[in-house]
Amino acid sequence: VFGEMVPKNISFSVPDRSVLLLATPLVGVATVFRPIIRALNETANGVLRLFGVQPKDEATSAFTVEEVELIVRTSTREGVLTDTTGTLSNAFEFTTKKVADVAVGMDALVTLPEDATPADVERAVAQHGFSRYVLVDEAGLPSGYVHLKDVIDLRDDEYDDPVPPKRIRQLISLYRGMELEDALTMLRRAGSHVARVFDESGATRGVLFLEDIIEELVGEVQDATDRRSPR
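Below the sequence we write its predicted C-alpha cells.
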C-alpha cells in the first residue's frame, strides 16, 4: 500500500509537483546504484552462460513486425484471437504501404479555383458532400485547401468575394515513395489534413488526405459532411 498505491495516487493527483520534487532524488539514486545494478546484471548473465543460456536484453529480444504478424495470424486461425474489425490486419498492412498507395490523383479530385468564393465552397459542399476542397491555380496545380468551417462564419457581404488568403490553409509536400507511417507523422506535426504528393522529378501527382490514412488503420471514417463519392 505505502510502497506502490500511495505514491502512485499522489503522482496522479499532483503530477507537476511530483516531478519537480522527485526528479533530482531519482537521478541521484540511479547514479549511486548504477554500478551495483551493473555488477548484479553481469553476475546473473554469467550464471546463465554457465548453463548454456545466452542472455538477452529487452531491445534485442523484442519481436519484429513480421514475427508479431505471424503470431497474430496463427492465433486468429486457431481461434485464440478474434480480429472481427480487421484492425490488427490493417495495422500490419499499414506498415508496408507508401504514400502513392493512398494518394488521390488530381484527375479524381473535386477542386475549386484559387479565386473561389465562400458561396462556391458552400455549393461544392451541397453538391459533393466533402468538407475540404483543394484550391488549384490556372495550371491545375494545388496551391492550398479550404475547409467549410473556414468560410461559414464570414459576413454576407464577403460571400461573393474570393476566400480571404488568411482563411486558406497551406499544403505540405510529401514524396510519393514515403512510408505512410512517416507521412502520418508529418501531417500531424504540421497540423494539416491535406498534403501535395510529388514524384521523383518534383511534379505533382496527387493529394493525400489524413482521413484516408486513418481509414487504412481503422476502416471507413464518416465525416459529418462527407458523402462517399469520387473526390
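The first strand starts at residue 111 and ends at 113.
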